């Protein structure tokens, strides 16, 4: 979203390149993704915030909204919370990773695998191949900001290894490969 207002910021202190990236001829790029709708041709214009551009996961040229991934995962029984994150990938640019907080914190390994399979099945039924998590990890909590937003970059750092993660089916690079990683 781009806005023009006399109340906009003048720039980032001591960071001229970041200022140049967001300010152009009096316009400010907020970094927000928005959806604009009109209910009636003569009616008001409604603007819906749909997340941050910087949080999009670009998988093989497709833009994946991590909030949509979170919503599908949270709809699965047994999931208390979920956060999608980006896994760097040499072939696709990025793959979708998913950190899941189970409703029952005392799941044994077999129950965790069952929950991961349920989540993978939900994505096969409700999402395109690019939005299906390549890795589903079980964790005790998601890192959040003071305002409650998921710290997706922290999830990427925490759950991404230097190599590309294996997939469940080598013929489908974005197939859901389930696995767990213990909390540090």
UniProtKB/TrEMBL annotation:
SUPFAM superfamilies: Acetyl-CoA synthetase-like (SSF56801). InterPro entries: AMP-bd_C (IPR025110), AMP-bd_C_sf (IPR045851). It comes from the Bacteria. PANTHER family: ACYL-COA SYNTHETASE, MEDIUM-CHAIN ACYL-COA LIGASE ACSF2, MITOCHONDRIAL. Residues 69-149 form the AMP-binding enzyme C-terminal domain. Keywords: Ligase. GO terms for molecular function: medium-chain fatty acid-CoA ligase activity. Pfam families: AMP-binding_C. Belongs to the ATP-dependent AMP-binding enzyme family. One of its GO terms (biological process) is fatty acid metabolic process. This is AMP-binding enzyme C-terminal domain-containing protein. Residues 159-184 are annotated as: Disordered. The keyword Ligase applies.
């Amino acid at each position: 979203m781009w806005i023009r207002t006399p109340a906009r910021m003048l720039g980032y202190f001591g960071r001229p390149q970041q200022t140049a990236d967001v300010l152009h001829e009096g316009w400010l790029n907020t970094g927000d993704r928005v959806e604009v709708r009109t209910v009636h041709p003569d009616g008001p214009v409604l603007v819906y915030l749909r997340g941050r551009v910087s949080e999009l996961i670009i998988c093989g040229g497709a833009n994946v909204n991590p909030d949509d991934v979170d919503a599908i995962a949270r709809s699965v029984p047994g999931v208390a919370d979920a956060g999608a994150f980006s896994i760097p990938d040499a072939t696709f640019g990025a793959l979708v990773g998913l950190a899941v907080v189970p409703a029952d914190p005392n799941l044994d390994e077999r129950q965790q695998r069952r929950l991961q399979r349920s989540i993978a099945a939900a994505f096969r039924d409700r999402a395109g191949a690019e939005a299906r998590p390549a890795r589903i990890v079980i964790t005790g909590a998601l890192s959040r900001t003071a305002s409650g937003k998921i710290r997706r970059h922290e999830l990427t750092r925490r759950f991404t290894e230097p190599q590309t993660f294996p997939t469940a089916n080598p013929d489908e690079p974005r197939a859901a490969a389930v696995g767990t990683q213990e909390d540090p």
